[in-house]
Amino acid sequence: MMRIEVVGITGGVGAGKSEVLSLIREMVSCRIIYADDLAKELQEPGRECFDRIVGLLGKDVLSADGRIDAKVMSTKIYRDPSLRKEVNAIVHPAVEREIRRIISDEKEQNRFEYLFIEAALLIECGYDRICDELWYIYASEEERRRRLKASRGYSDEKIDGIFASQLSEAEFRAACTETIINEGEIGQTRLQLKEIILKRGRQ
Question: If you count Cβ atoms within 10 Å of the first and of the last residue's Cβ in the chain, which end, N or C, has fewer?
Answer without folding.
Answer: N
